[in-house]
Amino acid sequence: MNIVATAIVGTMVVAVATATAALLVPRPARSAVVGVGTALCGAAGMAAGIAALAGQVWSAAVAGLLPLAGVVLTVDTLSGVFLSVIGAVGIAVGIYGIGYARHGLDGRWVQAMEPLFVAAMLLVPAAGSVGTFLVCWELMALTSLLLVLAEHSHRAEVASAARWYAVMTHLGFVAILIGLLVLTGHADNDSFPALRVAASTLSPTTAGLVFALTLIGFASKAGILPLHAWLPRAHPEAPSHVSALMSAAMVTLGVYGIVRVGLDLLGGGAQWWWLLVLALGAVSAVYGILQAAVGTDLKRLLAYSTTENMGLVLIGVGAGGLFAAAGNTLLAGLALTAALLHVINHAAFKTLLFLAAGSVLHATGSRDLDSLGGLRPLMPGTTAAFGLGALAGSALPLGPAFVSEWLLLQALVHGLAAGGVATAVMMPIAVATVALTAGLAVATFVKAFGVGFLARPRSEQAANARESPPTMLAGMGVAGVACVVLALTPVLVLPAVGGASGRVFGTTDPVSAGLLTVRLQGFAGSLAPLLVAVTVVAATMAVAVLARLFAARHRTRVSARLWDCGAGPLSARMEYTATSFAEPLQRVFDDVVRPEHDVDITHYRESRYLVNEVSYRLRVPDRVEHRLYRPVLAGVRAWGRAGPRLANGSVHLYLGYGFAVVCGALILLVVTR
Amino acid sequence: MSVAGAVSALLQIALVAVGSPLLVGVMRQIRARLEGRAGAGVLQPWRDLRKLARKQPITPRGTSEVFRTAPLLMLATTVAVVAVAPFVTIAAVPDAGTDLFVVVALLTLGAAALALAGLDTGTAFGGMGASREITILALVEPTLLVAIFALSVPVGSTNLADIVTSILHDPSRAITPANLLAGVALGLAVVAETGRLPVDNPSTHLELTMVHEAMVLEYAGPDLALVELASAMRLSVFLGLWATLFAPWGIAADAGVGALALGTLVFTVKVTALGAALAAGEVFLAKLRLFRVPELLAGSFVLALLAVVASFFFG
Amino acid sequence: MRGLWRKIRQVGRVAEPAPSPPAGGRVGPAVELAGSVQVRHVDAGSCNGCEVEIGSAFGPVYDAERYGARLVASPRHADALLVTGPVTRNMQRALRRTYEAVPAPKVVVAVGDCARNCGVFAGAYGVAGAVADVVPVDLDVPGCPPRPEAIVEALRTLTDR
């Protein structure tokens, strides 16, 4: 019996059933029903993905379901990677949503969208024809849009964020549509095998055009510069479990699209394609983490961190394509393995981080790091979860992202001589980018964890926080366990992921992973994450024991007041805030970040020499948005303003237009005869 | 792990643990003599540590386990690096190899733990020290990783043991342009990571000029002893790594008694010489303004990038 | 840089030879401190005359560091408090808190006549008392200001070197 088929069909059935139940079940039970249903969807999707990675492929065509083309589903190992990731995130989010959605988020339609969103995301990697792919892509966009709008009655920014998201995702959809249709135009039908055949007959210009158009759409979905503007707007405004789904699962489908279309359907392509992907990935990685490092909104910081990680993934994908274009398929497989492993690791820790952020938001009502703090004694579970996520996000050893970053660095380091001069120039730049990103990621997560959770509360809301309900802690626990398992025993996923990437390039698994050691095939390089973790933990315990031995026995530990230089009590205003912590970095990168200062001085009525009040505002806007989007939006607005002048209701003008067009068409026909 | 490997690892740990306060003592003594003073003697840091261990441990109110465990973690990551690096003998390197990226990441983990402890105190100085330390750490990473890249290109591997054996087999590799450029870049990076002049003054009393000291203002007694020992060991480890990468002669190839003795002696001499040179250089340098440090680090990054270019073109 | 190097060579050693060590052997706090004392200076209201002498004591000529004493910035790092000046009313609470922040075993050294008995400021309206009225004092260094040799000798009784 085909597990993949059963699981995919099962997912659809459960999703539709849960959505219907959400519309019918009364309010008290609604979030529980939907949570369990979503988790079951996720579990089925994960089962399908794991079965696909184990080698079971599946293909099905249902003629009548969609007009004209029908539905074609194909699951291979590459789809399997993404199916398992999305399924796993769905499980954690479903469990978490039981407790999180209980207050204010359990409207009928909002709850019904949740399982549908997970199901739509699971269908995208399973799509086997252009029609199915586009329909599922659009379904995913619509359901996520409705979920983003869930809290629109609470805050005004939600509507604006949803508008940005809707417009950008649909512009991306149009770009993907045009690109895939150009490709389909050269093929017999729209199924993927036919497209592969057609791709080999394309001229380099047409293939380049198809790739560029689909890259625009998929890169925008993945949150890559310069089309990332929706991400730091939509992810903070969505409910936290939806943010987790979007950040950990949905953006990875952008990467899936690039790999599927660029490497699989179009068969690799020219070198400039992958240089472009690498460059975009590098720029997004640095810019994303820089904005996260100077940001103070907790969820916006995590959203920019998603841009950074997707940038790192695209560095891997671009490097893989570059090496494959130069003929070095083993190294290309290694780079793609690193990228796909990073997708998996990122999903684990980003889910954990967003769920923990949601827990903080639920308890304190605030996302602003400058007003949080002191949550360790009040919310120990959430603090531990965020701490683990922060360790993972900063790509340090004992975290999962370290393994994938190590693989990526190894691929880049061994690839210096793999291509021509272009590769030799890009490799050091890529390594430098990964290094700077790693350093800034450490800064970002030390800031987020240290300012947000440690020391003393900086506001009343933080001081009144209470720990979250057990279902939310359970959801975080699932994600946390995944992080720990991926960090210590990547052998559980590496053979499957390595096999999948090898298959994309037609080569063998580039990594041989044992329980203790991960070794590169064909190159010198090995890593033993479990040994590193055991060594550090053992050394910590040994140091603790020795310290206890050498200490004086008659001196017991006392608790004392903080050293405040002898003056009055330390108030919360004297603690370092996120803004002050990031200030040196902001000054170093002033040209890129360009914060805006607003200083407002109010004087006394009696005299301009006496100051009554000074108000200071510091904002770090998205500089790319300012430079690129403002002119475009201004142009569109100008065009809109020109409209009433062009169509001003005068019949004479309209008759004139008609006459001019007819004359022009006749002249054109004469000239082109 | 083989017996030879375990013995070598323990020997290296003992050597660095006992020797790093002595290294700090030597460096302070050289500074003192160059400044015309008599100095406290080479054993003074050990006297300080012994006294600190006997003092009363204090936990400030309002801090959490992060504050208590950060010194342990910092020391543990340093010990983990010492255990697997080929400082005295290549036999200490385990089968899985000692990847340079892992070494750099472990040392970064230790520093990040201390920065979190600085934030955990909730005092303005703790936060200030953490903020400055993290900024310098973030800006040193590119130099470190790109320099490792440059060193790995002729060898085809980032394993420390492979790089050492390749230079031992072919001594002319040590003076290639790539190696020299990477040496200077890594030297500046070592100065920044260990908090020496001109990046940070380890003996300042002015809190506003502190980077590392500001994070540890709240530690007392045995905790402070751990922090001081960890800092001294980090200094030894960084100097030892520099010596191992650029002057690996004298490192034993196996775990024979004579080879180990020679390796220990040579390692001690190398690290002491580097420390003495650093201390003597510090007498002539003033601390850079904090916002000038990124310019220094950018310069070291450019050197590392040139090292990669040189390794590609000149092999 | 060459100029500085030449100066170092010319001047050579500036530190005066150490006078004979204090008699009495290792008593009191010196037993636990065993040759290492970290000192935190607290100005409780002095005229800064004693500060100049303390600065001189830790300078190259008298070099108190060679006997194991070192100035530190935080009282948590310190074993001994070097308190100068009469304790003014504004500094009373701060001195008390600084003393409490020092981990045991701790020593308080009152440097100068003002610290011992308010000196010339006795009875002034801003003075709360001598150092011994606020924190327990273990060692006195008389003088107004005390010579650096006297300060160094007091520190040597703490380190026994």
Please tell me about this protein's structure.
The complex is a heterotrimer of chains A (673), B (315) and C (161). By secondary structure, chain A is mostly helical. Chain A has helices at 3-24, 27-53, 77-100, 108-126, 130-148, 157-185, 192-199, 204-221, 231-237, 240-265, 271-293, 298-325, 329-364, 375-378, 380-393, 400-414, 421-453, 460-463, 470-488, 494-505, 529-550, 578-581, 583-588, 590-593, 623-646, 651-672, and strands spanning 58-62, 71-75, 511-513, 518-520, 526-527, 558-560, 596-603, 611-619. Among the domains of chain A are: 270-547 and 576-594, no CATH class; 623-672. In chain A, a hairpin with a 5-residue loop joins strand 4 and strand 5. Chain B has one domain. Chain B contains eleven helices and one strand, in the order ααβααααααααα. In chain B, helix 7 (177-194) runs antiparallel to helix 11. Chain B starts with a helix and ends with a helix. The model of chain B has no long low-confidence stretch (mean pLDDT 94). Chain C contains six helices and seven strands; from the N terminus they run ααβαβββαβαββα. Chain C has helices at 2-11, 29-33, 49-57, 92-101, 113-117, 148-159, and strands at 37-43, 69-71, 80-84, 87-88, 107-111, 127-129, 139-141. In chain C, helix 3 links the parallel strand 1 and strand 2. In chain C, helix 3 packs across helix 6. The longest helix of chain C has 12 residues, at 148-159.
Described by the principal axes of the CA atoms, the overall outline of chain B is globular
Structural class of chain B: mainly alpha
The number of strands of chain B is 1
Please report the number of helical segments of chain B. 11
The counted number of beta strands of chain C is 7
Concise overview:
Chain A has 673 residues and is mainly α.
Characteristic terms for this protein:
heterotrimer, A: about 675 residues, 26 helices, about 70% helix, about 5% strand, B: mainly alpha, 11 helices, globular
Task: Describe the SSE topology.
The complex is a heterotrimer of chains A (673), B (315) and C (161).
Chain A: H1 3-24, H2 27-53, E1 58-62, E2 71-75, H3 77-100, H4 108-126, H5 130-148, H6 157-185, H7 192-199, H8 204-221, H9 231-237, H10 240-265, H11 271-293, H12 298-325, H13 329-364, H14 375-378, H15 380-393, H16 400-414, H17 421-453, H18 460-463, H19 470-488, H20 494-505, E3 511-513, E4 518-520, E5 526-527, H21 529-550, E6 558-560, H22 578-581, H23 583-588, H24 590-593, E7 596-603, E8 611-619, H25 623-646, H26 651-672
Antiparallel strand pairs in A: 1-2, 3-4, 4-5, 7-8
Helix pairs in contact in A: 1-2, 1-4, 2-3, 2-4, 3-4, 3-10, 3-13, 3-19, 3-20, 4-5, 4-10, 5-6, 5-10, 6-8, 6-9, 8-10, 9-10, 9-12, 10-12, 10-13, 11-12, 11-17, 12-13, 12-16, 12-17, 13-15, 13-16, 13-19, 13-20, 15-17, 15-19, 16-17, 16-19
Chain B: H1 3-34, H2 44-53, E1 58-60, H3 65-84, H4 100-121, H5 124-152, H6 160-169, H7 177-194, H8 212-215, H9 221-246, H10 257-283, H11 293-314
Helix pairs in contact in B: 1-3, 1-9, 1-10, 2-9, 3-4, 3-9, 4-5, 5-7, 5-11, 7-9, 7-11, 9-10
Chain C: H1 2-11, H2 29-33, E1 37-43, H3 49-57, E2 69-71, E3 80-84, E4 87-88, H4 92-101, E5 107-111, H5 113-117, E6 127-129, E7 139-141, H6 148-159
Parallel strand pairs in C: 1-2, 1-3, 3-5, 5-7
Antiparallel strand pairs in C: 4-6
Helix pairs in contact in C: 3-6
